[in-house]
Amino acid sequence: MNLKTSTAPENPNQAETHRQLLEAAGEVFAETGFRDATVREICRRANANIAAVNYHFGDKEALYKEVLRYSQQKALQKYPPLLGVAADAPPEKKLRAFVHSLLLRIFDKGPTSWHGKLMSREMIDPTAAMDSVIEERIRPMSEQLWKIVGEILDCPVNDERVRLCSFSVVSQCVFYFHCRVIVSRLFPAQEMDAAYVEKLADHITRFSLAAMKHLPEAKTSKSHSNATRN
Amino acid sequence: MNLKTSTAPENPNQAETHRQLLEAAGEVFAETGFRDATVREICRRANANIAAVNYHFGDKEALYKEVLRYSQQKALQKYPPLLGVAADAPPEKKLRAFVHSLLLRIFDKGPTSWHGKLMSREMIDPTAAMDSVIEERIRPMSEQLWKIVGEILDCPVNDERVRLCSFSVVSQCVFYFHCRVIVSRLFPAQEMDAAYVEKLADHITRFSLAAMKHLPEAKTSKSHSNATRN
DNA sequence: TGACATGTCAAACAATTGTTTGAATTATTT
DNA sequence: AAATAATTCAAACAATTGTTTGACATGTCA
Fold first, then answer.
1. Do residues B119 and B128 touch, judged by C-beta distance below 8 A?
2. B15-33 per-position pLDDT tens digit
């Protein structure tokens, strides 16, 4: 008995079924959620035996944790938060890139399209696996956004307005994915293709920039000497 | 055998267990979702026998449909979309009321606090029961918002900008609830009490108004003669 | 080749869960 | 009060599901 715990396999045979189980599990977990997903269905899609999940991952929950980490890593690797925009680019450009990359990650149609759905499910029913995802992935991304928003608002990153406005930006991105049931019901004609994602990125960026540059209390007392420093 | 289908009961005893089952089911469904909720737990909380669900509602799924309708009706009755703001009030006031009522409905702590969670779950795993909820509740509310936004943008309600901006408004409201796992993890100190809901309503309204009044293409070609007509 | 570890497989196990059943209890009607 | 209908109850049923088991196959190394 082997019972590896989250380490990459070395044997080519094992590596193959290991990877196929991950892919199949990602699909099924995304489609039906953790509880509704059956190991039988996962193994069927992976062309593996029923006992394969327990042999390779220990149990169903450990497999799920692996899938979550795997999808996060893949998605962030495919669409990094700033999409290659230069570090010294104007904050407006960075904001646009941040928004676009978030939309691309969520709406990705590729082989790892389960990332968005898995994250949506984690929002409602967070598992223990979500802890590390938040600390290792989401918090750094948030801090990146705070810096950008802080520059645009011209106020320190720990100002409450930075937090509120940053959430306002992110919320518009996740909405179209999380509430796509409603969006596509109210506007059945609208397809969610790459061109539309681009259009959404445009709107969200313009909407948010207009808001932040004309926010009633945006230019009040606070000094702006250290606005871009941390 | 009775097997009533979604009609209100007439017998006082039956009415009592019927209602208690609905309340208990609302709790459990909100906490754990449809699949993870067990009829045994629901009946336990309702002080009813295991067979009560099947006797009163037919099966577990029919009970769920009832719960969803019940929670929607209760929530909208408690917090109507415009919170009593006059029909001829300025659109800015109406927007603020719309935002506030949506937040109140979602964050409601009262006896029917499961409304928000149930809706979140329906977004990800829409059941057949969601169809009627969208058509009977959500679409009318959306049209109400489109009118308000159309007035603010000064363009017809079927303009694409109205749709995009309306979604931008709603998205900020649902975000704080749907992604509260992340929000409360990034800012553990922040409590989600009534005062904070008020503050959120303020920010979202100000942010959105600033955006809509200064949107780059907000005042282009379209005529505004029929802006408030439909 | 032979010994040994690794991986795969079909079958069975144990626990959970929605539902049904038929008797017992309670309420309503005649 | 008797009869009838409605409701509750404990027990059992049937299906699903995660997991385990022990045999069998495959590959590796002496």
1. no
2. 789 999 999 999 999 999 9
Report yes or no: B218 and B116 within 8 Å, Cβ to Cβ. no
Q: How far apart are CA A53 and CA A40, in angstroms?
A: 9
Q: What is the pLDDT of residue B12?
A: 43
Q: Are A207 and B207 in contact (CB under 8 A)?
A: no
B69-77 own/partner pairs: CB under 8 Å, 24+ apart:
B69/B6, B69/B129, B69/B132, B69/B133, B70/B22, B70/B26, B71/B26, B71/B112, B71/B114, B71/B115, B71/B118, B72/B115, B72/B133, B72/B137, B74/B112, B74/B115, B75/B105, B75/B108, B75/B112, B75/B115, B76/B105, B76/B137
Cα separations (Å) of A7 from A60, A114, A129, A178? 16, 22, 16, 32
Cα gap A125→A146, rounded to integer Å: 26
Amino acid at B219: K
Please determine, for residue A209, whether its predicted confidence score (pLDDT) is greater than 50: yes
Q: With a 7 Å cutoff on the CB, does B2 touch strand D?
A: yes
Tokens representing B219? 């005042």
Tell me, what DSSP letter sits at residue B79?
A: S
Q: Which two tokens stand for residue A19?
A: 């990877």
For residue B22, what are its two tokens? 């609905």
The number of angstroms, rounded, from the C-alpha of A125 to the middle of its chain's C-alpha atoms is 16
Average pLDDT, chain A: 88
Whether the CB-CB separation of B172 and A173 falls below 8 Å is answered with: no
Q: Which of residues 184-203 of B touch A (CB under 8 A)?
A: 185-187, 203
Whether A64 contacts A169, CB under 8 Å = no
d(CA B153, CA A203): 14
A181 lies within 8 A of chain B by CB: yes
B183 and B200 Cβ atoms separated by less than 8 Å: no
A:206-225 residues touching chain B, CB 8 A cutoff: 206-208, 210-217
List chain B residues with CB under 8 Å of A138. Answer: 182, 186
φ, ψ of residue A3 in degrees (nearest 5)? 55, 55
List pLDDT tens digits, range A31-88.
Answer: 999 999 999 999 999 999 999 999 999 999 999 999 999 999 899 999 998 988 999 9
Query: Which of A46, A107, A50 lies closest to A78 in space, CA to CA?
Result: A107
CB-closest option in A33, A208, A215 to B125: A33
**Contact predicate B203/A164, CB 8 Å:** yes
